[in-house]
Amino acid sequence: MEHPPPLSLVLPHPDKLSGEALSFLDGNFEDLRDLLLRASNLTSHLKHDTSHLNDRLLHLRTDLTKHAVSWISTSLSAKNSLDDLRLNLESLSLVTSLPRSKDAVRKQREHELQQLVEDLCRIQNRRKYLLTVLKLESLVGDLEDSVFHPMRGRSMLQVRVFNHAIKTMNEIEHVLGDVTRHHSQWRRLVDTVDSRVDKSLSILRPQIIAEHRTLLSSFGWPPKLALSKDEGGEAASGIPNPLVVMQGDQKESYSQSFLLLCGLQQLNTLKEKRKKLNKESIGAGLWAIDELVIPVASRMEYHFVKWDQEPEFIFALVYKVTSDFADGVDDLLQPLIDRAMLVSCSAKEAWVSAMVQMLSCFLEKKVFPGLVEMVKEKKSEGVPSWFHLVDQMVTFDKRMQTFVSSDTCLSYEGSSLGMSVMGLFCKRPEWLKTWGKIELKDAYRKLKEDIKKEKAWEGTRLGNESNSESAKYVLSTREDYKAPFVAETFLSRTWTLIDHGLTLPTVLPRIQFVRATATKFLWYVFKTLLLEFKKSDLSDYSSFEDSLIQACGPINTARYLESKLREWSDDLVFVEMWEAETNVKVEVSCHGCFFGEELKSLVELETNWLMEIITVCLHQFDNLCGDHFHNNVEPWEEEDVSQGVAEALDSLRRELAVLQLNMNRKDFLDLWRNLAEGLDHYVSCKFFAGEAVLLRRRFEVDAEALMMVFQPYCVRPAAFFPRVREILRLLSMNEEEKARLRGALSRNGSSCLGLFGISNLSPQLVEQFCRCY
């Protein structure tokens, strides 16, 4: 048996081989021994590739034949259309040459020209359609050649193929975008191309991702999380960053792979924009950075599971890893993002967002479900664990906000949904509702304890120490409003609920939470104020002054709450929330601000309580003075006030002094002015309901004494008793003036009363006075 000739005799001399053949052999074989071992395998692979390429060539020939037949058919159709057009033009020339009326010729020409235009447009549309089909077929065929051609091992050739495929898909996407915008009737063409491109993409994307993950693993990603027991499980400082230590070919390979993923994401964005897919932007960061986070998450979850009862360690570890690697990510990947021309994209923010979303996903899947069950089953540790976890989430978000905004001019609010672990409540509204119920129930419990405190309803008494009259009514603090200590508690509890809601990253969940907690809590506060006011028994005249002091507490509290709610409503945060709520609701409050309904109710409570006090004061005044304003039988000296009137005025003076000392200035101002108006009406009615003959001097003395009661509160008290003032004017008239008044009334009626300085008394009362006096 003969031995085969040596391999050196079988192979051609290297000088006789082309450069491509030499590169091929050098790329597949290291030495002669490697050639002997792998030659048969290479031969089988080449035969397989050749067979695949032959099949592909046959497929292309078949497609070319089909398109050629379609093109010939379309060309014949176009030729027939042009022949019809030529015949129509010849007919048009014959028709115009016949002796017909001008109108008939004009109508015939218009009809023929319209048909001509329609035929030309139809031909042009068919031409555009065919050119578009041919262009798309060429691009899609090129894409399928790149994607379905088998490639083994990583090489620069493979990277070039991936880049070429992505570039081709971008060109296809631009063509489809143009078709979608200008030729919506070509929907079937778009759907067909989309189907073929998606099939190629379903093969290409896993290959690129797999290659990227292999690269990450090759240079030691993810890093080991070295933990220090001394720090309670927090990550130790100085964790090495593999991204920073990459050099040479390894760094170049990662850069190419990163750009490939960015290219795929840009393509995906274009497709979604064309298809107008309204997807949630939560967690929609950079795919390449997400690939960095995925292996880190799998390694960190091991520690998370051990700390399910100690969430502070979980948040500390995530913050530590995020901050330690942020600079390396920014230094390496930001230039690559700029090369990929990703507009308004920050590597650091994308890294932070991906880490936050990783933590949010863990909480959603592993932590909150068990916590929700504990709360529903009313276990004792459920609510405290919930509060502790939420506090840790809020603190974590604030730390991340500070970290991101520390060296960037970009606003945290712009991407807060992706960078906030509190965004979990925005994704799970049922958990937001559960949180709101827990917070509201806890606020109710604490409020009941606050109300029971001994000095809860004790207020602050201030004198009129201000030198400026206008400054007396510029109120800001609880002391200025003379509100009891519990008023500050009401506000602090309410603001705590609001502040918790403001930690949510989006507006609508904020509104939902604030309405479910702070707003309901305010209504409970209003009910508490109403019950407290009812405790002051104003009908008991024996302790009337003490009842007035007790009634001032809820009145001052209501006024203080009203001022703070108006102040909050003017804040930009609540203005934005009010606008957002108005836009999404069909029926909303028409009171013009976020706390409109609450302010309306507060004002109604204050008004009703003040009117109740005024009513009781008027009843007591009436009980004390009786008919003394028109009783001529009672002994009376000319310069003295009637005994009954003096007693009533003395009681009124004491009540006003008590109210001034214990009630806030604004409500006291409204109260004494309305009380003066009521007394003015009361006294004038008593005057005209009296006997026909009345001691003039006696009424003047009593009326002057009544107005002097209000002298400490205004410069001209007579201005607040317009009816009594006009009665005194009538009484001061001499007989000649009364005669002129009677004559003017008989001639001109009520229109002449203004000439005599009378505008508040009716003409009937003036005529009654003229008859009696």
TrEMBL record:
Cross-referenced Pfam families: RINT1_TIP1
InterPro entries: RINT1_Tip20
Source organism superkingdom: Eukaryota
PROSITE patterns, per the entry: RINT1_TIP20
The name this protein goes by in its record: RINT1-like protein MAG2L
Species this protein is from: Brassica napus (Rape)
